[in-house]
Amino acid sequence: MVCAHILVAEDNVHQAELVRRYLEHDGHSVVVVHDGRAAIDETRRRNPDLLVLDVMMPLVDGIDVMRAIRTESDVPIVLLTARSTEDEVLLGFDLGADDYITKPFRPRQMVARVRTILRRTGRARETSATVLKVGDLTIDPVRHEVHIKDELISLTPAEFRLLAKMAAQPQRVFTREQLLEDGFITARTVDVHMMKLRRKIEQDPRRPERLLTVYGIGYKLA
User: Which Pfam families match (predicted)?
Assistant: First the structure.
């Protein structure tokens, strides 16, 4: 299996979360944005391995996003659209799309096509390199499993995303705003997930030794 860093730009929150879940289940790390301007900014900032791009988006539509990105990046782009006329499809390919998926689509087929593009473009990486270890904590993004020593810890998808993001850069202090980038709705939601995570990975959640609060800033994984 292979994995990649994927940016999903989709203004429909339910559709974006569906795409995210299926791609993460396939072993990829996924960031979601909901408008075209954010898609351009995040592509420049994160340099993803692949962009899943909805055509109909606020602020800047997907076609103009692709025009902007193609002036500075050859990142593979998969277009998602409810418009499927031949002229529109040809325009997408002419501007540099690598694939074109018409809504409604089957998520598993979308994942398979993403996998094919990643292999063809050489953007995919072996998943064995994605296993994260912080002390006796092991996070496997491919299997979506977390172990403390030999004990399997059951996490929700949101808890797993938070923990994996922090485990990729242990000792880094993440602000709530940085954690909100991964799709959490409010800063309070981040706090609730952190509280639940502590109950699962700390010996004494009231005196955490792994998931630490940095007062006035945010959280870090020690």
Answer: Response_reg, Trans_reg_C
pLDDT value, residue 69: 92
pLDDT of the residue at 34:
94
> What letter does residue 172 receive in the DSSP assignment?
P
Angle subtended by helix axes 62-70 and 86-94, to nearest 10 = 20
| Ranges of the chain whose pLDDT falls below 70 | 1-2, 83-86, 124-130, 142-143, 181-188
User: Structural domains in the chain?
Assistant: 5-121 (3.40.50.2300), 132-221 (1.10.10.10)
Closest to 11 in 3D by CA, of 113, 75, 81, 76: 81
Q: Are 70 and 95 in contact (CB under 8 A)?
A: yes
Looking up tokens 């991964």 gives 182
Angle between helices 157-167 and 187-201 (to 10 degrees): 80
pTM of the model: 0.58
What is the rounded CA–CA span in Å between residue 48 and residue 4?
A: 8
Neighbours of 116 (CB within 10 A): 13
Question: Beta-carbon neighbour count of residue 76 at 10 Å?
Answer: 23
Cα gap 113→107, rounded to integer Å: 10
Please give the angle made by the CA atoms of 208, 173 and 126, to the nearest 5 degrees. Answer: 95
